[in-house]
Amino acid sequence: MAKTLAEKVWDAHVVRRVEGEPDLLYIDLHLTHEVTSPQAFDGLRGADRQVRRPDLTLSTEDHNVPTFDIDKPIADPISRAQVEALRINADEFGVPIFSLGNIEQGIVHVVGPQLGLTQPGMTVVCGDSHTSTHGAFGALAFGIGTSEVEHVLATQTLPLKPFKTMAIEIEGTLPDGVTSKDIILAVIAKIGTGGGQGYVLEYRGEAIRALSMEARMTVCNMSIEAGARAGLIAPDQITFDYLEGREHAPKGADWDTAVEYWKTLVTDDDATFDAVVTLDASTLSPFVTWGTNPGQGLPLSASVPSPDDARDENERVSIERALEYMGLTAGTPMKEITVDTVFIGSCTNGRIEDLREAAAVFDGRQVAETVTAIVVPGSVRVRLQAEAEGLDKIFTAAGVEWRNAGCSMCLAMNADKVAPGKRSASTSNRNFEGRQGPGSRTHLVSPQVAAATAVAGHLASPADLVASNA
Amino acid sequence: MEKFTVHTGHALPLRRSNVDTDQIIPAEYLKRISRHGFEDALFAAWRQDPDFILNDPTYSDVSVLVAGPDFGTGSSREHAVWALQDYGFRVVLSSRFADIFRGNSGKIGLLTAVVDEAVIEQIWAIVEADPTAEVTVDLPAREVRVGHLVATFDVDDYTAWRLIEGLDDIGLTLRHEELITEFEASRPSWLPTTR
After folding, report:
1. Most CB atoms within 10 A, among A51, A445, B146, B171?
2. pTM to 2 decimals?
3. B175 has a chain A CB within 8 A of its CB
4. Distance from B10 to chain A by nearest Cα, in Å?
């Protein structure tokens, strides 16, 4: 029977299938971090259970960790206690851990791929909704709650009801200056934050095939913002080239065997999706959110929408409330909105290509006096690579703060926060109320737009900077 | 897990859509490593507003949350379910739930019952007019009853069975441990390990 990619990966991991019950799926890789795991490890202790496969489990410290003074004890005692709990749990249960100070430390969704641990056709889970990132490799990867973390620790499996499948077809070619972040923001604006509920998304089409692995990760990362637990992309030569030679990638004859298998991981020509959404890449432009959920986005060249534009009463109330929280007036051109803070980083856009794109905009320019800008690399490896390329010097010369690796201002669990009432342009994934600190106002953007905005002092694309310089 | 069959209690009408888990419990509260005591964190930012409905003494004894569509979007944090339970909620009614939130709820005994948006509107109207109105959520019958209103709700059979029996997932899965071992033996040797 013809199958989609998601169905192939699913079917290859079924441990037990019985009518009327969820399938029991085997999990190839379980990533853990300090925030969603302590209660799961406590659960194991309480039931006198072990971690079944510590060799398929990995811990890294990311959500809470400071991005400066990392050689000192963590200043916040509650954060410190949580990070210490992870270290104790990893030690007691034999789980490998990358602690602060380790060269492999970083955001869990940056670390897995860069080590070659994320491979096509695998099942990958983590107590973090942005686990969908790993779908860029053709893996079935999704976020889970703490009870499920405990379940995977104890059994290396999860009981799951089959997903429906949705094709997101992005045809055509992206115009210059338009990135994978703009693609996914446009997709979410089109289908809404609930549009993907119950589905696994498969991103397809010419524009997706043309993306690098890192750009594909940005797309898959935000699947959850469209309500989909997972999003994936069929592996191809770009995927294989990225993986070859990485520490945990197969070697020698195993590599050939693996690639042979990976090449079968495509949706069959005659397979059908439960839903199809299409978007023409050539019509896209830099995208930005104006509201308090990631579906409230529009082209940077547009203006703040009005509650009168709503399709129903719920949406009208939602727009009104978002405008009030964001301190915006309907009809204001997006490019006239001034910002106080710019954050470049996160599991969405904290990889080396993102930093290169931002650095290219900052090169020879200065951050506006009214703006504080920080760049937080997604991992220590990304930080070191950026420094080897001299990107850190470009950032600091432009007046941008160059930090250490972690989740940082994406969710403000560490000291990096947007101040109450202040406005940020952020390359992260969520513009929820208070996401970047109590009272913070967030506009989601690509790294290029973030950098241009830091320079201009208001929402802007690199093209706007060139225009104003000329 | 505590068994869930029929629950009767007062309802909180939350007239908001797209209630994400960052609103249900802000990230600041996720640093705790305990499993209980999150009631103070529930809707912590919104509770700063004296007019927020949870601060209304009329609704001080509530156990059924009635919310707009797309409840529980965003972060996978199970803390959102813990905070709702610790505060005293046993049921959330909405026309649409985010997948991860719904899965987390079903694992630990918070019933997420899907009803039509029109039914949500009716329940809001009833409990706003009379906050003492008792809402009964009958899981075996898949029914919600309040005043003269009787409406069916949707929950999948397997989750309903586990809630009614109060069954622990890990215990259920470990009944099939030999199948897991058998599957492991068939995995290709080139698959990565974290060691």
Report:
1. A445
2. 0.97
3. no
4. 24
Nearest CB neighbour to B99, from listed A96, A197, A249: A197
pLDDT, one tens digit for every residue, chain A (470 residues): 899 999 999 999 999 999 999 999 999 999 999 999 999 999 999 999 999 999 999 999 999 999 999 999 999 999 999 999 999 999 999 999 999 999 999 999 999 999 999 999 999 999 999 999 999 999 999 999 999 999 999 999 999 999 999 999 999 999 999 999 999 999 999 999 999 999 999 999 999 999 999 999 999 999 999 999 999 999 999 999 999 999 999 999 999 999 999 999 999 999 999 999 999 999 999 999 999 999 999 999 999 999 999 988 888 999 999 999 999 999 999 999 999 999 999 999 999 999 999 999 999 999 999 999 999 999 999 999 999 999 999 999 999 999 999 999 999 999 999 999 999 999 999 999 999 999 999 999 999 999 999 999 999 999 999 765 54
Note the helical H segments in A141-234. Answer: 146-155, 180-191, 206-209, 213-221
- Partners of A148 on chain B (C-beta within 8 Å) are 103-104, 107
Give the distance from residue B7's alpha carbon to the nearest chain A alpha carbon, in angstroms.
23
Q: Which of B154, B70, B82, B150 has the alpha carbon at shortest distance from B112? A: B154
**How many CB atoms within 10 Å of residue A266?**
18
CB distance from A79 to chain B under 8 Å?
A: yes
Residue environment code for A351-363, b if the CB has 16+ CB neighbours within 10 A, otherwise e = bbbbbbbbbebbe
User: CA nearest B171 in A: which residue?
Assistant: A151
CA of A404: how far to CAs of A407, A409, A414, B28, in Å?
10, 12, 12, 21
Which residues in chain A have Cβ-Cβ distances shorter than 8 Å to B120?
none
Phi, psi of A362, deg, nearest 5: -75, -20
Inter-chain CB proximity A145 and B100 less than 8 Å: yes
Burial class (CB in 10 A: 0-12, 13-18, 19+), A232: buried
The CA-atom distances, in angstroms, between A361 and each of A312, A338, A378, A454 are 41, 18, 19, 10
Which of A52, A146, A435 lies closest to B78 in CB terms?
Answer: A146
Pairing of strands B135-138, B143-146: antiparallel
Tell whether B141 is within 8 A of chain A (Cβ). no
**A36/B104 Cβ within 8 A:** no
- Match 């976020």 to its residue by tokens: A143
ipTM exceeding cut-off 0.90 for this assembly: yes
Which residues lie closer than 8 Å to B182 by C-beta, 6 or more apart? Answer: none
Among B residues 72-131, those touching chain A with beta carbons less than 8 Å apart: 73-79, 81, 96-100, 103-104, 107-108
Compute, in degrees rounded to 10, the torsion defined by CA atoms A33, A166, A283, A237.
70
